[in-house]
Amino acid sequence: MNNTTSETRTVQLDDIARELGISKTTVSRAISGKGRVSEKTRERVLDCIRVMNYSPNMIAKSFSEKKTYNIGVVIPMDNMETEAPFFQTCLMGITKCCALRNYDTLVISTERDDVSQLRRVLESRKTDGIIITRPLQSGSMEQLLVSMGVPYVTVGQSSDLDAVTIDSAHKEGSYELTSYLLMNNKPQKLGLILGSMEQTVNRSRYEGFVRAVESSGALVPNKTVFLGVNGEMQLRRVIDDLLQRECSCIICGDDMICMYAVNMLSSIGKVIPRDIRVASLYNSMYLDMYSPPITALSFRAGDLGATAANLLLDMLEGKDTSRETMLGFEMLIRKSTM
Amino acid sequence: MNNTTSETRTVQLDDIARELGISKTTVSRAISGKGRVSEKTRERVLDCIRVMNYSPNMIAKSFSEKKTYNIGVVIPMDNMETEAPFFQTCLMGITKCCALRNYDTLVISTERDDVSQLRRVLESRKTDGIIITRPLQSGSMEQLLVSMGVPYVTVGQSSDLDAVTIDSAHKEGSYELTSYLLMNNKPQKLGLILGSMEQTVNRSRYEGFVRAVESSGALVPNKTVFLGVNGEMQLRRVIDDLLQRECSCIICGDDMICMYAVNMLSSIGKVIPRDIRVASLYNSMYLDMYSPPITALSFRAGDLGATAANLLLDMLEGKDTSRETMLGFEMLIRKSTM
DNA sequence: GTGAAAGCGCTAACAG
DNA sequence: CTGTTAGCGCTTTCAC
User: Is the preceding peptide bond at A135 cis, omega within 30 degrees of 0?
Assistant: First the structure.
């Protein structure tokens, strides 16, 4: 009866049904909890499953339910971002959280606002929903998602105002840090270096900066504000410029920019904070470890990821979720701005 | 005939078959290239597919073919490794490479040698094969994989001697760098700090170090060799010890250890390389950017990932692959050891 | 409370 | 070269 081929066939619903002398329908119900099954049968089934070491073929289940139990996570793989700790940590948070709810995580790459990989995955119907870890102003991902009717969550502000979003308080953080720097150590001549303004996060950062400057009664120092800075060479020119204009404090958009900046400064003999102060609008372990350690805003990337995952899974399960969730930040005042 | 419900039903094989007045078998064959189809029919099918914007339901395909077109990538999410650039870069290489061959990447987390997530994914049958990015001496992942008959590739040496492996020449690199440091700047008193010896990569590094020392005619300086160093506190004690023993040069196992080490050294006023020299057996962008930049071995994590993916996919497609592939390294001699 | 049967969208014998 | 048919392993009506 059992065909004992060399490949040990994996045990499936039928097997445990036959073993128990009941129908696989009942077994299915006992497992899923949908429909009524007598307490006694349920226990027998659950026991048998354990004994026979049954575990469902998720592909068959997917096929039947039209639900994959996978979510896709779009991660930037541009040169500049490839090694940014944020995305890695965020992905960990997502993956761990999904695993707890028996979902898996599919990685989707993007560079700039390329949606080809996202489209490929969506067309394959391998995911139930998507997390965008770096929303862009263009909103092309969101458009695609909406047009295909696929649920998604963005980590950071989306240009799709209806998008479910989990964000860190970048604007508020930027505001606070800028204000702090303006209050402290007067007279202060601030410089600002931000990455691509296509990234919504950089817009939030900029907004916070501008508000802080304005509410201090000053004018935005356009000559020392550099937006859309990208790549090492461009950054070098910006730094030179900032030094030329005798900036007393440089605010860097994120940890990567900050690392480059700090390095360039010290390579030309500038001592932080004696000669110039430096702060970052995004902390990472690399800034913790610099000497002197760098003043920075600290956000919990892992928590962001976990929250994004929970939001998305809640949506998939039909619960309603708040449109926007905000996580706080911590301001780490350290020696680089003393 | 077409039920125009609110949800636009996705076009499937039947639709284009009906459209063309042929059977879906023929359509399937035209797409896959398996079985013979007249050139004319094939073209008609391919055209129709384009026009009707058909794209196959991969879940149905998976179910039918018993092949998921997914590979699982096991990534360590221990505290220490969570932000290590290696795994991120490796994952990018894998993901990009898989995408080219129309596969997707499922992330599987692990801490230490926990196999629970791997087991969960394997039991779900959601992947065709696995890449282990941090093989451990215990080999528990490999055992599980072998016992379930799932193909896999390890990035780095595996304790399973039959495992298909793609590795960087860590041993050779470690040998070369150590030799270089021994030749240069005599007299040299070397210290070595390695992470967990459960990780096979650290064993390779250690082996290279030992060989280099021995072939220089010296004895392995056991008092200044620290294996299995883990966590900031332990590292601090090790560094203190190395200073006490008047080490002239510290070799760090990887970029993370090196960053901590360099930071601790400069926080107690040690100047590199004047007071003490520092090198790392694994480079990352963070070491590039230190000042002074740190002498280190450079491996191409992205290439490793891409190669691992190609190997695995080749295996899945039944091609045979060499058991072990080795990628080279570059020795970056920089100011930290001058 | 339980079972029989249909069906998810594709592939793969087998027959022509 | 093409079509018919039978699954793949689940979930889910529908009937009892």
Answer: no
Task: Please indicate, yes or no, if residue B43 is contained in any of the structural domains.
Answer: yes
Phi, psi (deg, nearest 5) at residue A330: -125, 140
Boundaries of domain holding A202: 170-299+332-337
Which residues 103-122 of B are in CB contact (within 8 Å) with A?
A: 104-109, 117, 120-121
Which positions 247-286 of B are in contact with A (Cβ < 8 Å)?
259-260, 263, 266-267, 284-286
Q: In this structure, are A221 and A151 located in the same domain?
A: no
Residue A2 resides in a domain = no
Q: Is residue B257 part of a domain?
A: yes
| Number of folded domains that form chain A | 3
**What is the residue-level pLDDT of chain B in tens, covering all 338 positions?**
333 334 577 899 989 999 899 999 999 999 998 888 899 999 999 999 999 999 999 999 999 999 999 999 999 999 877 788 999 999 999 999 999 999 999 999 999 999 999 999 999 999 999 999 999 999 999 999 999 999 999 999 999 999 999 999 999 999 999 999 998 866 789 999 999 999 999 999 999 999 999 999 999 999 999 999 998 899 999 999 999 999 999 999 999 999 999 989 988 989 999 999 999 999 998 888 888 889 999 999 999 999 999 999 999 999 989 999 999 999 999 999 98
Same domain, A51 and A102: no
A55 and A96 assigned to the same domain: no
Burial of A9 (0-12, 13-18, 19+ CB in 10 A): exposed
Is the CB of B62 within 7 Å of strand C?
no
Is the same domain home to B164 and B305? yes
| CB neighbours of residue A21 within 10 Å | 7
Using alpha carbons, select from A312, A309, A307 the residue that is nearest to residue A325.
A307
